[in-house]
Amino acid sequence: MQPIRPQDATNVYQRQAIQGAELGRAAGGDAGAVRRGGDGSGSRRADRVTVSPEAQELYRAMQAVGRQDDVRADRVDALKTQIESGMYRVDAQGIAQRLVENGFGS
Hints:
The protein is mainly alpha-helical. It is built from four helices and two strands; from the N terminus they run αββααα. 58% of the residues lie in helices and 8% in strands. The termini are close together.
């Protein structure tokens, strides 16, 4: 089973927030359902959907996360410089230790 990546969760939350916001806008307009009363008269009832302030804040946070670059350009440039100058050293012992601690497959 693949673990859920942050990007996957972000996409799910963004879709849910967008759908909720769109439903809220649609319900706020003239999108009511016509109901007939017992006497045959028609009355319009509008369904409404509200999005909590917490959900709106989560949506804004997810948008901000989505705008961030996945690549840390400053770190990549620093590593390139170290490699080109011959100063980059691989910590094989540290890598082996992290593999043992975190498991080889994860």
